[in-house]
Amino acid sequence: MSRSSPPGLAAGIEEFVFPGEQEPVLAGLEVSFAAGSLTAVLGGSGSGKSTLGRLLAGWLLPGDGGTLTGFLELAGTRLRFAGTTADPRIDPGSWGRQVGFVPQDPAAAVSTVRATVAEELAFGLENAGVDRESMVSAVRHTAALTGLTRLLYRDPATLSGGQLRRLAIGCAVISRPAVLIMDEPFASLDTDGAEDLAALVRNVVRDGAAVVILSQRADVFLHNADTWLVLAGGTVAAAGSPTEIVAAGALEMAGVVRTRPHTGLRPLADAGYSSAFAGPPALELRDVSFTYRAAQRRGWFRAQPGPPADIVLHGLSLAVSAGEILAVAGPNGAGKSTLLRHLNGLLQPTAGSVLVKGRNIGGQPAGRVAAEVGLLFQQPRDQLFERTVEREVRFGLERRQPAADQAVQQALAAVGLEHLAGRHPAELPASQQRLLALATVLARRPSVLALDEPTVALDGYGLAALDRVVRSTTAEGAAVVLVTHDLDYARSIAHRLVRLDAGRLLPAD
Amino acid sequence: MRLHPLTSLAAAGSTAVITTAAASWPLSVTVIAVAAGLSVAGGVARRMLPAVAVILVPLVLSLLAMHGLFFPEGTTVLAQWGPARVTVEGLHFAFERASQLSAAVLVLLLWSFTISVPDLVAALSTRGVHARFAFVVASTLTLLPAISSRLGRIRQAQEARGLVIRPGIVGRAGAFRWQAVPLVLSLVEEAGTRAAALQARGFGSSGPRTSYREVPDPPAQRWVRVVLLLAAVAAIAARLWQPTAGA
Ligand SMILES: Nc1ncnc2c1ncn2[C@@H]1O[C@H](COP(=O)(O)OP(=O)(O)OP(=O)(O)O)[C@@H](O)[C@H]1O
Ligand SMILES: [Mg+2]
User: What ipTM was predicted for this assembly?
Assistant: First the structure.
């Protein structure tokens, strides 16, 4: 392929160092993304993918955000950085008009100053002064592409994880940027969402944009990419076509997860499961129904009429015995996370009851139930709030007791984070944040473990740690309920698989 | 009919100005009663009450202490401790000032609690208000909800780890010490990432901008706003012209 036109986006990074750090995060890295091409940047946890993405997208600005030596080149204009105060400044606004970005945490893309999904989609267009008619049609078109049509009048703060990802993608593509950078865009999307996204990427590439997808997983779709760049330790460890990279075995080395193309349905790990533990089921749901209370104002001052609140859970009944692993699958917005929040009392059913070890937890404060039920949130950032990894795991354990010290050590060791005890949780890469959140749950030795999309953002090593943890806790008699979109994973580990669709439980397949 | 946010702002502002300028307690008390009635009818009374208490209780108490106890012109003495004299005139004056102030605070609070922030921001930006200013207004008005949702998320994370919080406002207030530090740290951190996202999406860059949200502004409401502003100006003029009126 020879092109005379300059690349859409290129960068030569001799070194990039975060403020106050010594070690560079990125070093000796040269990349270039041609118009009309699809590039996948693959790498394990901490390889520097997200930093590279944010730097290329103008979300991390050289200068305030860190010291860059090297160059960035957008649409034929090259900016050189020497790490001094005389360096050029990137204007994020005009950079952002040419480069669209979907951050790894979709919540970070939402402006929070807009009241509905439609307005949030239009936000970038408003700031560019696009007239209203064009905005309305762009919003409608983008919503159709990303499956947001039915959610246009919802408050972005009430979206489910996958719905929020779709919104972040919509916000990035609505202004048709010449370069599109997406960090783990397939994470927590359901099958339809993933297909929509694949089609969208194909169209955007066909229309001549340069698309860059950063990922821990060599997804099936990414085999369509023109180029794979394997990132390890902040530099490009291998580059080439997917077949070349696979042949060279560069993925396993870098900790990238390889997904096998589906070859029929794999049987469940242990189809004929019968509990080795006697007594009442560890967890039981009886006719649980739930509706989110509408946060609308009543009375005269209602601003604009919103849609009425939908019933999220419809009379669910379910029992999980000790030592059993139940996987829950289902489309985005089906109510999976809502269901898990009922298990530890963070949400109380509007009708029906939840029993843990045969005891009804209705009306009990969530803090009490937490002794028995550990919940891993869908977004690790929502679960972490302390200043260091160690304090994070210790929170809520009996203080100043040798037993607590031991529990903290064991939990950190179980997920392989013991060497990071003094680090700040917010500085950890996403994979380690999820493992840390898992450690905070494990430290309490719960008898029911509820995991909300635990595989998302985990690299190969993280997945191995998760697998170990789930198997060993069930061996000790804990019941595990895990929500996932990765059916292959679900089948590899679960004894039973159910589908939650529009708030109703169906047996899978 | 929906009120344009600027119309309700004009109504609240001019009511506050007129009651202040008129300085007549029957008017102030009427305004207080109407504002209270509207807040109940509008279903915002419960949310508004804490804010009202936080602002008004110290103000009213200090007014009572100042004028009720030390009012040099007072003649009808009710009680006396050394230099402090409780006089009828002093109490009357304190009551007058307190009702005047409460009326103004109440209507402005009522406005801020009933307004639709998105409508206001859209109205400002279509009026060509400078981008940075619109940014400041939008982020200030969304600050409280943002803080309270952050707080809620931290609270849930802690409850999921065994922090027992009794339901209801008292239980939450008691547990607040666990959330204070994480809240501040996460708000600081979030402000950084939020700013990057907003800037990259063109918020704060100069140049014309448009608004997706349509806020209808019928001509009748424009006239109402003009009349309200004129009335406020007239009230101030009358006050300056005839400084003793009403007092
Ligand atoms: N706080 C809230 N207020 C109102 N509605 C909400 C709230 N949180 C979630 N919802 C809605 O409830 C439904 C179920 O949400 P939930 O988060 O349980 O979905 P989910 O199955 O976990 O989806 P995903 O796969 O995207 O994570 C969705 O339609 C969602 O938009
Ligand atoms: Mg979810």
Answer: 0.87
